[in-house]
Records
---
Amino acid sequence: MTMDAASKIRKQFAFLAELDQLKSVIRQSPLINRTRYENSAEHSWHLAIFAIVLSEHADGVDPLAVATLLLVHDIVEIDAGDTPLHDPGRDIGVVNIKERDAARRIFGLLPEPQATHLLSLWEEFEANETPNAQFAKALDRLQPLLLNTLTDGGTWTRNNITQEQVMQRYGPVIEGASKSLWVEAAALIRRHFSKVEGAEEAKTDSVESNV
Amino acid sequence: MTMDAASKIRKQFAFLAELDQLKSVIRQSPLINRTRYENSAEHSWHLAIFAIVLSEHADGVDPLAVATLLLVHDIVEIDAGDTPLHDPGRDIGVVNIKERDAARRIFGLLPEPQATHLLSLWEEFEANETPNAQFAKALDRLQPLLLNTLTDGGTWTRNNITQEQVMQRYGPVIEGASKSLWVEAAALIRRHFSKVEGAEEAKTDSVESNV
Ligand SMILES: [Ca+2]
C-alpha cells in the first residue's frame, strides 16, 4: 500500500468516526412504539429506504441517488443541531449559515476529491432544484408525517398544530414531487384529525351527560 | 390515481412503518461517546456511508449497490434479533432459519415485484458470493472494529476477546475484500491491544512496588 492510500484511509476513518455523533442528535418525532424520540442517524436510514421503496411514484428520479442525498442530508446537524419544522422561533438565515459551516468542516475531514463530492451532494439537497433533491425533500416531510399519524399526532399534538397547518407545511413539498403519494398522505392526515375531533366530541358529550 | 397505485402505496407505507422497529433492536457495540449501545437502524445508516466512502479500496464493487445491501441487511433482526459476533452460544443454523422466515414475512409486506427484489438483495448479502456482498460483509466487520478501538475495546473488552481472536474473526472477512483497509484496521487493533498490555504492566508494576 502506498503512503498516499494509507493517509487517505486514515482521513476516511476520521470522517466515519465523526459521523457517529449523528446518533446522538435527537429529533422531535417519537418512534412508533413511543419508547423515545428518534435520532437523526436512524431517521436518515429510514429515509434512504423510503427512497428505494417509493421512487416509482415520482418522475425522473434515480432511487439510489435520492437515497444517497438522504444518507448525507442531516450530517451537518452534528454541529448545527436539528431544526424542528414546527419551531416558531427558527431563524432560517442563521440555520443556513451554521449548516454551511458544518458541511465545510465535516465533509472537509475527507480526502479530496471525495470531500468536494460529498459536499456537493449536500448542496444539491439544500438547493432543492434537481428532481432527485425535490423528491428527497418530499420524503423528508413524508416520513415524520407517517410517524405522526401512527403516534396520535406526534409532533403535531406536541406543538398544537392544526390540520390546516399540516396541509400547508407538508402538502406543497410532497405533492410537488409526487401527486399519488400526496393523495395517500393527505388521507392519513384527514383520518388522524377526524379521530382527534371525534375524541373531543366524545369528551364534550360525556361532560354534558354528567351535568 | 388508479386503485392499483393506491393499494401499492398502502402496502409500501405498511412496510416502512414496520421498519421503525429496527430502531429498537440493540447491538452490543457502544456509541463512541459511550452514552448507550448502538441500534441496528443507525448502524445500517453508518454502514451505508462506509460503503460510499470506502468502496474505492475494493475491486469490482459498485458503491451504491453495496450501500443498498447494507441498508437492508439487518431488517430481519426485527423478528430474529441481533446475533452478536462474540456470543459463544450462537447457533448459526437456528439463526439462519429465523432470519429467513423474518425476511419472507417483512419483505412480503411489499407489493410484487418489489417484495421479491428486496428479498433478493438480502439473499445476495447472506450468500456472500458477489464482490458487492463480500465488501458489504467486510464493512459490517470494519464498523464495529472501528467503534471498539475508540471505546477502550468495546465488545472485545466486554467479552474478554484476545488480540488473536480479533485477528481471526475480523481479518479474513476484511482482508478478503480489501487488503489496504485490513492493513489500517490491523494497525488500529494492534495499537489498542498494546495500550491494554501497557496498562496491565503498569498495574503489575505498581502492585510490585507496593509489595
Ligand atoms: Ca450487521
---
Amino acid sequence: MGEELSLPAVRDALVREEDSIVFALIERARLPRNAPAYEDPAAAAGRSLAEFFVREAEVLHAKAGHYQKPEDVPFFPRDLPPPMFPTKSYPKVLHPFASSVSVNDAIWKMYFNELIPLFTVDGDDGNYAETAALDFACLKAMSRRIHIGKYVAEVKFKDAPQDYSPLIRAKDTKALMNLLTFKAVEEKVKKRVEKKARIFGQNITLEEDSAGKQEGNAGDSECKIDPEVLSKLYDHWVMPLTKDVEVEYLLRRLD
Amino acid sequence: MGEELSLPAVRDALVREEDSIVFALIERARLPRNAPAYEDPAAAAGRSLAEFFVREAEVLHAKAGHYQKPEDVPFFPRDLPPPMFPTKSYPKVLHPFASSVSVNDAIWKMYFNELIPLFTVDGDDGNYAETAALDFACLKAMSRRIHIGKYVAEVKFKDAPQDYSPLIRAKDTKALMNLLTFKAVEEKVKKRVEKKARIFGQNITLEEDSAGKQEGNAGDSECKIDPEVLSKLYDHWVMPLTKDVEVEYLLRRLD
C-alpha cells in the first residue's frame, strides 16, 4: 500500500492482487500434485521440502528488506534476519499493532490441505523444487491480499468510528463481522476472480482470433485452472480470512 | 521437458513458457523502475541487491533440487550446493554436453540494460526486495524458454542428421543459423506473445462483460504492459538467443 489511505486505493490494491493470485495458481497448476515435496524426508530435520523452501526463502526475502510493511507477513516470523540493504521507510498509516496481526497459520493449512488437491492434478513429475517455489508464490500472493485487510479495517474505522468503537469496546466480534460483511460486494468479487481465471487461464492462439471467437469463452475444461476453484477459494477462504484480519485489527484499534 | 522428445511436445513447452514470461513481466511492471535495487551499496560486497538476491535464490533453489535439467540453467553456476532433498532422475534425451550450454550472461545484460527500461515506469516506491524477487522470476522464465532451445536443436537434428552433420563438421555457424530460422513461424510467435500480453494484461471488470465488450480489445494504454514490448522482446532477444543456444548445442552434437 502506498501513501494515501482511501477506500478506492485499498480496493484497487485488492483487485490488482487478484491478478497475482490467479497468475500464481495458474503457474502452480502447470505441475502435478508432486506429493513428495510435502513429505518429511529423514534428511531434513523433519521438514518437508515445501516447508524448508518457504522458511529459507523468507530468510532471503528478509535479508533483501522484505516484511517491513504490515501487509507483507512472513509465515515463519521467528529469527528472521534484519535487512542487509538500505530500506525506505513507509508511511505509518495503521495502528502500530498492525504488524503483529497474522492469519498465516490458517492460510498455510488451507493451502496445503484444501486448495492444492482442488487445482492440481494427481501425479508426480519429479519437479519438487519448482513445486515448492511455485507454492511459495501462491502463499505469498494470498497472504498479501488477505493482510491488506488491515488497511480495509482502518479505512472503515476512520469512516465511521461511532459505529465501530462501541463494538470494539464490547469485544463484539460477531457484530463487527456483520458490520464488515457486504454480501453483494462479495458476490461480485467471486464472479470477477472466476472471470479472471477464465481469461488468464485460456490457451491463446492466433487462430481463434481470426475466427472472431471471443476470448475467455473457451470451455472451462481447456482452462489451465478451473475458474470455479477461484470463486470457491475467495468464498470459503480468502474473503473470510480477510475479515478475520479486519476484526483482529479492529479489536485492538483503540488500545 | 518430459519423457518424450518430439517437435509437438517441445513446441507445446515453448508456447506454455510464453504465458509464464508474460505473467512474470506483468507482475514486475506493477512496480516502478526502483533503480536503488540495481546500485551497489557499500555494504554488500560490491553487489547490487538484485544480484545478491539472484545469487542467494539460486543457492536456495539448488538446495531444493533445482538445476538438474538442461533447460534449468543458473545465472551463477559456481559453487552451487548439492540438493538436500531426494531428486528424481530425468530421462537423458540430450547430448551430455547440453548442461553446459548457457546464454545466461547475455540474458542478464539484456534484461537489466535493455528490457527493464522498456516495461517499467520511472520511479522509486521503495519496494526493492519485491523488485529483486520479481526480476528473478522474469529472468528464470526467460532463461528457461531460451534454453529449451537445446531440445529444439536435438529434435531438428534427429529429424534431418544428413542436413545438419556436414554443417556441424564444417563449424558453419551461419548456415546452421539459416537452417534453424523460419521467418513465418517467428512472425506468428511475435503476434501470439503480443496477443497474450494484451489479454493477460487487461484490467478485468464485470461491467465490460455485461456490455458485451470483447476481452482483449481494451486500448493498449490500459494494459498492464505494452504488448509491443513482448513482440520486441521475442524479436530482438528471446528468439535470437534461443537460436544461439541451438547452434551452440549443435556445434558439439557430434563430439
